[in-house]
Amino acid sequence: MADISVKIAGIELGSCIFNAAGPKDVTLKELEAIGASRSAAIAMKSCTKEPREGNEEPRYCALESGSINSMGLPNLGYKEYMKFPALLKSFGKPVIASVSGLCLEDNIQMLKAFSDSEVSAIELNLSCPNIKGKPQIGYDFVQMDEVLKEALKISKKPAGVKLPPYFDFVHFEEAAGILKRRKPAFISCINSIGNALVIDAEKEATVIRPKGGFGGLGGKYIKYTALANVRKFYELIDIPIIGVGGVSSGRDAFEFILAGASAVQIGTAFMEEGPSVFARVQDELASFMARKGYSRLDDFRGKLKVI
Ligand code: SIN
User: What does the DSSP 8-state code read for residue 274?
Assistant: First the structure.
């Protein structure tokens, strides 16, 4: 059987596949279900300083090949998530906090707190598209530089950053310049493609309610954009990349690693299929690698050929 284990930012992962911060990871019960699955780590919901109800319902809709959501960061507040690593210890997996402060001070306060907690790593989410009146920091390079400068230096735990999708080579280069300077322990790319609009023609209506129906697009629709982001950053910077966006099979995971990802997260497919998705995708990846004659991820990581 192929070995699909990996070490990222000093953290050993039994496999390169785990859940994306987002779906089904808000409550302790949901996190326990991830712990009991074959997800290699337990990524917790992006949290804010205070608990949030999130946006009004309906705020998630499964689509033919993916999903649209405008959840608005419903979460229990960071103090609850600080307690969870101890309660999830029996699963023997790294627990990853995801921090999505509504201002720089909140991010700093939460990073400091998680830094002294039992989490294995922290993902700073600079890319949630669903908070009314709050632009995605990952699209404001001045602010992104400032946040990373202040936030990363205080974390004693490996701290990475979750990025929005970029579409223009100039923006990739600008973001890469900041990442080279601020040196996060890893980057996760991509978050959902923000502010998509899905319309139900029969009902002549949007399929979600918040923000006039605009929301983040996820699932298979975004796989090629996610692959492009992983590849471009792999070319531009020397920082481990966690690929996320449209992974629902072992073959998808293989493509992300071939593009340069060190690990892969699953969002929409986990939401739709439940925790068994992790075992299935891992087994499919190992079989696909065996068929190709690869025994380790390093055998093909980043080795995409351009025809
Ligand atoms: C949300 O809660 O709105 C989704 C999280 C995210 O997109 O970062």
Answer: -
Rounded Cα distance between 259 and 223, Å, is: 12
- d(CA 145, ligand 1 centre) in Å: 21
Q: What pLDDT, on a 0 to 100 scale, did the predictor assign at position 306?
A: 98
Q: What single DSSP character describes residue 221?
A: G
What is the rounded CA–CA span in Å between residue 219 and residue 227? 12
Whether residue 71 has its Cβ less than 6 Å from ligand 1 = yes
267 lines ligand 1 (CB under 6 A): no
Does residue 281 contact residue 17 with C-beta atoms inside 8 Å? Answer: yes
* CATH code reported for the domain at 6-54+72-192+220-299: 3.20.20.70
* H or E stretch at 124: strand 121-125
Q: What is the DSSP letter of 153?
A: T
What is the residue extent of each domain of the chain?
A: 6-54+72-192+220-299
Cβ 72 under 6 angstroms from ligand 1: yes
Question: What spacing in Å lies between the alpha carbon of 131 and ligand 1's midpoint?
Answer: 8
For residue 301, the model assigns a pLDDT of 98
Using a 6 Å cutoff on CB, does residue 125 contact ligand 1?
yes
pLDDT for the residue 1: 82
CB atoms within 10 A of CB 111: 24
Residue ranges of the chain with pLDDT lower than 70? none
Over the stretch 168-200, which tens digit does the pLDDT of each residue have? 999 999 999 999 999 999 999 999 999 999 999
Would residue 128 show up in a list of annotated catalytic residues for this protein?
A: yes
Of 148, 140, 238, 225, give the one whose Cα is nearest residue 191: 225
91 CA to centre of ligand 1 in angstroms: 26
Residue nearest to atom 8 of ligand 1 (CA): 128
| CB of 3 closer than 8 Å to CB of 13 | no
48 lines ligand 1 (CB under 6 A): no
